[in-house]
């Protein structure tokens, strides 16, 4: 992202820039009526014919890409990052995107879904990125989410990305290295993005498994007795919150992938459709893992609370035991503390040592009995 900010600060969007090498992020000025100080949200814009990126003497604007596709064939792939309404309005008008889909793409925070508007498919994916942390605490951020919105048409593919993670630059490189697949058109790009997102889910699930195993080990470890009781509850609850965010990305995506893999669609190449089944299978695996994480964390949390309750009961037993031992000398001292003249052994020479001996013996007997019964 630092490279993108540097580029944004270095270029003037009102000027047309020279061609950048494949994969370099470029910024295009789309609307000449815009404020010259504004920066375009277009990350990359290219035309692909027969699976290869078409050469161009200048960096294409979306309008130029559209005209080139109409003239020479192929399809345009336009990538945007967090566009504003003004930045996206011209592109939406040029490609005939539905206003409802445009509104969702600009404002983000959408559930994963698949919608059809005339001759355009609008797909929303939630990206999940695992946040590395040296130690899991009650405030650790475990996952970070973003969104990728895809507009799939007959001769265009538009991606709108939100969030600091989930860059599609490497994915574009891989597709450009596979002309046979890219020649299938926009549906091949849609499949590649869905596969990329779900593969990210698998990686995050494996990383979260390590965090859950760590918490589980700490809760049931005998060496953890020195830690404050209930101290693991905060970490467990934080993990549950992160798993819930993960689930919100995974669960709603089942239906869109099922439609893409099972229902014939004009915009989806039949040869590509079968590949969506593999993505759906991977998503099913991730969902099973996420459900398992949630159930396991519930069990770990209940075990942690039960351990805390057992520890409190043990403390109460110890306190009660010592109170019973202290009660013996308290009673004896209370009796001989009364100001009566005629009391047993009051004036006897060995009375004091005898009372102390009886008191110590009684306390020792009670201590042995409680110790043998596991109260101390």
Provide a compact summary of the structure:
This protein is α+β, with helices and mostly antiparallel strands and about 375 residues long. Helices cover about 55% and strands about 15% of the residues.
What does this entry look like structurally?
This protein is 55% helix and 13% strand. The longest helix has 67 residues, at 270-336. The chain has a seven-stranded mixed beta sheet, sandwiched between helices. 30% of the residues are buried. A hairpin with a 2-residue loop joins β1 and β2. α7 (186-220) runs parallel beside α10 (270-336). The protein is an alpha+beta fold. The radius of gyration is 35 Å and the shape is rod-shaped. Mean pLDDT is 81; it is low at 1-39.
Specify the overall morphology. rod-shaped
| Main beta-sheet annotation | 7 strands, mixed
Strand order of the largest sheet: 2-1-3-7-6-5-4
Q: Segments where pLDDT lies below 50 for 5+ residues?
A: 1-39
- Using DSSP, what is the number of strands? 7
Q: How many whole angstroms does the radius of gyration measure?
A: 35 Å
- Mean pLDDT score, rounded? 81
Distance between the termini: 61 Å
Class computed from helices, strands and strand pairing: alpha+beta
With helices defined by DSSP (H or I, 4 residues minimum), what is the helix count?
Answer: 11
What's the SSE blueprint?
Blueprint: H1 2-10, E1 42-49, E2 52-53, H2 62-72, E3 75-81, H3 85-95, H4 99-107, E4 113-117, E5 120-130, E6 143-152, E7 156-162, H5 169-176, H6 179-182, H7 186-220, H8 231-250, H9 254-262, H10 270-336, H11 351-372
Helix pairs in contact: 3-4, 7-8, 7-10, 8-10, 9-10, 10-11
């Amino acid at each position: 992202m630092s490279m993108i900010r540097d580029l944004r600060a270095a270029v003037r969007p009102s000027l047309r820039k020279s061609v950048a090498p494949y994969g370099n992020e470029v910024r295009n000025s789309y609307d000449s009526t815009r404020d010259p100080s504004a920066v375009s949200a277009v990350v990359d814009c290219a035309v692909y014919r027969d699976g290869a990126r078409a050469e161009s003497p200048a960096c294409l604007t979306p309008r130029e890409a559209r005209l080139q596709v109409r003239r020479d064939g192929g399809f345009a792939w336009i990538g945007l990052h967090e566009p504003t309404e003004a930045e996206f309005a011209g592109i939406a008008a040029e490609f005939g995107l539905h206003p409802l889909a445009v509104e969702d793409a600009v404002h983000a925070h959408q559930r994963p879904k698949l919608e059809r508007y005339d001759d355009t498919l609008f797909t929303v994916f939630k990206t999940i990125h695992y946040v590395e942390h040296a130690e899991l605490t009650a405030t650790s951020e475990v996952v970070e989410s973003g969104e990728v919105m895809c507009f799939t048409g007959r001769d265009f593919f538009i991606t709108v990305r939100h969030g600091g993670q989930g860059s599609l630059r490497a994915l574009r490189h891989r597709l450009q290295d596979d002309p046979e697949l890219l020649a299938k058109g926009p549906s091949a790009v849609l499949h590649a993005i869905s596969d990329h997102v779900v593969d990210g889910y698998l990686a995050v699930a494996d990383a979260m498994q390590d965090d859950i195993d760590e918490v589980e080990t700490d809760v049931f470890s005998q060496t953890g007795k020195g830690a404050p009781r209930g101290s693991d509850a905060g970490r467990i609850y934080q993990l549950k919150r992160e798993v819930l965010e993960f689930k919100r990305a995974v669960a709603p995506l089942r239906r869109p992938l099922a439609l893409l893999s099972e229902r014939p669609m004009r915009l989806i190449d039949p040869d590509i459709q079968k590949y969506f089944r593999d993505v759906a299978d991977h998503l099913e695996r991730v969902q099973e893992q996420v459900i398992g994480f949630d159930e396991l964390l519930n069990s770990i949390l209940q075990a942690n609370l039960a351990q805390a309750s057992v520890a409190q009961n043990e403390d109460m037993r110890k306190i009660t035991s010592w109170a019973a031992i202290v009660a013996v000398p308290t009673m004896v001292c209370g009796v001989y503390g009364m100001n009566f003249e005629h009391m047993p052994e009051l004036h006897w020479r060995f009375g004091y040592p005898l009372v102390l001996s009886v008191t110590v013996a009684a306390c020792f007997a009670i201590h042995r009995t409680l110790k043998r019964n596991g109260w101390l």
